[in-house]
Amino acid sequence: MKYIKAVVLLFVISISAVKGQTVIGKYGGEFLAIGVSGRALGMGGANVAVVNDVTAGYYNPAALARINYPQISLMHEEHFGQLVNYNYGGVAIPYGNDMSFGLSVIRLSVDGIPDSRNALIDSNGDGILDIHTDQLDYSKITQYNNTDWAFFFTFAKRQTENFYWGANLKVIRRDLAEFGATGIGFDLGAFYQPTEKLMLGVNIQDITTTLVAWNTGRNELITPTVKAGGAYLIDALWGVFQPALDLDIRFENRAYSSMFNVGPVSVDAHFGVEYSYKNVIAVRMGYSDVKQFTIGAGIKLPKLNIDYSYAKMAQSAIESLPESHRISLMLSLDDAKFLRNSNQ
Predict the structure, then answer these.
(1) How much is the pTM?
(2) What is the DSSP string of 200-248?
(3) What separation, in Å, do the N-terminal and C-terminal C-alpha atoms of the chain show?
(4) Are 105 and 126 in contact (CB under 8 A)?
């Protein structure tokens, strides 16, 4: 009896430990790192100091104060032969002479995953279900989704003529079959333009460490990521070149997947350049932190921007993942009645 009680006690303690487990979620916020906007992704994601539109809510909340008209942006992408669906939508509104508000939504989902957990038939009647020997009752196979959501609520302010700051309140929702998790985090960004040509930016994501709590009792911590970047404008060939460099500094001990690391600190780089002709047509190229070569192009129509990017992994055809094609649209209400009002 004492032995049985000891076993039961040990079992209860172990279950409690699992349900109350809090871990550093290495790659826990990875779905948030895919990126948005055909423009930015065509430049390898180097956009912390470049962004000047509604997508600043994702790349650098401070830069959202650079907009002068309300904007809406949409993007859709499919990975791995339509297996993974990735969608983004954002809206931003300028307020007064120095503030902006924005909302960005990201959804990453694998839909229609077969669930055969309740479909096994106990062939030999021993009460033990074995996927190797037992059969399936296909009528009992159901489906579930693996879906990640992220909502960014953005505030930005122009503090001086050359310095901007902003912040995100970020809500994360993750669903896997009957299991779910919710998290709340904060991002803090800054944008500085010391000269007419030079732009600098920094975005500290998950600055307070984001806690993602599962309904199983497991808690995951998303550690902060520092994204710092710079861009420079060069007038040449009847247009403007804009080279950009971003560095992603993480503290997750990514010793083998990063470009460079020292102990638990890793650094990944994004390189990109954009050539814009008369602010109407643009071509872009870059190299991302996941070893992707990228190219892209964009056209600016009245009130509508259309941007396309293509990404290919640097590995051989056998080792590489399929190419990625991304198209994004941005509607800007460039009308005098919607212009930023300094009298608000």
Answers:
(1) 0.85
(2) EEEEEETTT-EEEEETTS-EEEE--EEEEEEEE-EEETTEEEEEEEEEE
(3) 77
(4) no
Residue type, 226: V
Query: What's the count of helices (H) and strands (E) in the chain, helices before strands?
Result: 3, 21
Q: Contact at 8 Å (CB) between 275 and 300?
A: no
- For the chain, what is the mean pLDDT? 85
pLDDT category at 315 given cuts 50, 70, 90 is low
Determine the Cα–Cα distance for residues 305 and 121; give it in Å rounded to an integer. Answer: 56
Domain locations in the chain as residue ranges: 2-338
At the top level of CATH, the class of 2-338 is mainly beta
Q: Which two tokens stand for residue 17?
A: 């430990």
Q: Single out the residue of 252, 305, 253 nearest to residue 281, CA to CA.
A: 305
DSSP code for 77: E
Question: How are beta strands 219-222 and 22-24 bridged, if at all?
Answer: parallel
pLDDT per residue as tens digits for the range 26-76? 556 778 888 999 999 999 999 999 999 999 999 999 999 999 999 999 998
pLDDT of residue 14: 33
DSSP 59: H
